[in-house]
Amino acid sequence: MMTLKKLVHVGVIALAVVTAFENSNATTYTFDVDPSSGIGSGFFTIDLPDAWPGNIGRSTVIAASSLSGSRAVGDDWVSLAISLNEPLERANNAVLSGASTSSSGFSVPSSGTGMAPVDAVSALPGVTLRAGGVPDPDGPNLAPTITCPAPATLQCNNGAVAVLSVVVNDGDGNPLVVIWTVDGVKYQTDIIPAGSSLAQTTVAFAANFESGEHNVQVSVSDGKSNPVSCSTSISVQDLTPPTIQNIVASPNFLSSPNHRLVPVSLSVSVNDNCGPVTSKIKSVRSNEPISGLGHGDLSPDWIITGDLTLQLRAERGAKGRGRIYTITVESKDAAGNSATGDVTVTVP
Question: Considering the domain boundaries, does residue 135 fall inside one?
Fold first, then answer.
């Protein structure tokens, strides 16, 4: 007995014949669907006749007996069906269509042709006949597996680029969702099409890690069992001190040796391979004694007033060639690496 119904396919309403086949005339197949199909990824199981039904000029619609897949994350397939079309003047062909949680209808854009229905379905874009047998929809679900790489230590150079890879697998061939989380923040989601997960699949994540310790958590889910996760760590170390390019004192001449303290400020140009640098005056010294230079000699000869500010006394020995103050600046990065440099201020 045949039942006529309306089939919506690419905006065209056509008559379709839904036929129940005897077991002796049909074979159960499982097909994997990848994103090139245009309908997402997953797999479905269906009973196809061993030969074309012979409904010339009409379509025979066969619903999938089981399915698992989605058009996108959160947009799961609800139903799939194969239309076996046998037009009068064109080759027999198969069309895959269905519905999802957010769409009342979709289909693979082009049809497939073949000598037998299974060949026509296999010829659909992005649809592949699974050679490993048919999963038992009533059997227990196998949770996916995941393996993380060993922890790594990297040298910082404006951060450190690391490429991490995990290996995932699902014994049922379910589509998998892999989520990468770094220091508690989700950064990347990967989708493994159904069928592809039967073999061990490598999934990569690349990022530029800042200096310090980072925890990388990776989870994989088949949408049926609880997510499985593993973790690793990335340690980015900064072992290189900053590079001081230039230190400028303003003023750098105290031209009137009137024994007064004169404010002096410093500016420091410094580079580091891994982030910000702080600079401060570490020490001050003079080529002349602090005291004992004769009438009017005062002390102290310098006072450090800030990280890069100080006061220098405008005085010199009467019989000398002039006083030279040498100011040593230390620049330190976040890892504690430091470098020093000198700048001079002269009292001529």
Answer: no
